[in-house]
Amino acid sequence: QKEVEQDPGPLSVPEGAIVSLNCTYSNSAFQYFMWYRQYSRKGPELLMYTYSSGNKEDGRFTAQVDKSSKYISLFIRDSQPSDSATYLCAMNQYSSASKIIFGSGTRLSIRP
Amino acid sequence: DVKVTQSSRYLVKRTGEKVFLECVQDMDHENMFWYRQDPGLGLRLIYFSYDVKMKEKGDIPEGYSVSREKKERFSLILESASTNQTSMYLCASSLEGRDGYTFGSGTRLTVV
Questions:
Q1: What is the pLDDT of residue B42?
Q2: How many CB atoms lie within 10 A of CB A54?
Q3: What are A48-56's contacts with CB under 8 Å, separation 24+?
Q4: What secondary structure letter does DSSP report for A83?
Q5: Mapping DSSP to helix (H, G, I), strand (E, B) and coil, where does residue B99 land?
Q6: Interface touch B99/A44, C-beta < 8 Å
Q7: B4-111 has which fold?
Q8: Residue A2's beta-bridge partner residues?
Q9: What pLDDT does B37 receive?
Q10: Any CB–CB contact under 8 A between A104 and chain B?
């Protein structure tokens, strides 16, 4: 079993829809949770960063962590065609840089 | 903004060649990483480095080596390229894990 599981998609939704992207994980020691966005032929860029459980909002994006269920989510409100990308969840145990574990990514397409 | 620059976007090499992939970051980050990204397999850590002249094996180091002679530069070396090393190679750097990683744009390597 992988440490981090993420549905690869593809997920296709109409413009303006609310998008929900999710990951589950098995290691209860994970404390830091991230979402990266990767456009085609580019490297991933950090989108959201959260520590422990709870919600974090940044504009149209909300990251949610439920440590009791080992489940994290990224919500995108009022989705735009420019949100079309692959979204990778990531997490690690410590604040040191070692061993950030990445999900395999969900490919998202927003239809105009 | 931190910049991580990978010297080549696309490379085509022959089987058996020695291949050098170069990565430079401009924000004095201690930590640097090399990943490869393949469809369905996600990001896999090859090597990482916490400091100059220090290196540690990641999850898939076989067939690769690295060099970090200066803080800003981290090189990935394929000693004798093979077709199964055809992949997207991503370099990343970070100050601490709590900041996440900053990735380069990637090098798409094809070994023929």
A1: 87
A2: 11
A3: A48/A74, A49/B98, A49/B99, A49/B100, A51/B98
A4: G
A5: helix
A6: no
A7: Immunoglobulin-like (2.60.40)
A8: none
A9: 95
A10: yes
Count of alpha carbons within 13 Å of A61, Cβ hemisphere only? 17
Provide CATH code, domain A4-111: 2.60.40.10
Mean pLDDT of A94-104: 75
In chain B (112 residues long), the average pLDDT of successive 10-residue segments reads: 87 97 93 92 92 91 96 96 97 79 95 98
Q: What Rg, from alpha-carbon coordinates, does chain A have?
A: 13
Chain A, window 34-93: residues with a beta carbon less than 8 angstroms from a chain B beta carbon: 34, 36, 41-46, 49, 51, 88, 90, 92
Confidence grade of residue A54 (pLDDT, cut at 50, 70, 90): confident
Q: Is B11 exposed, middle or buried (0-12, 13-18, 19+ CB in 10 A)?
A: middle
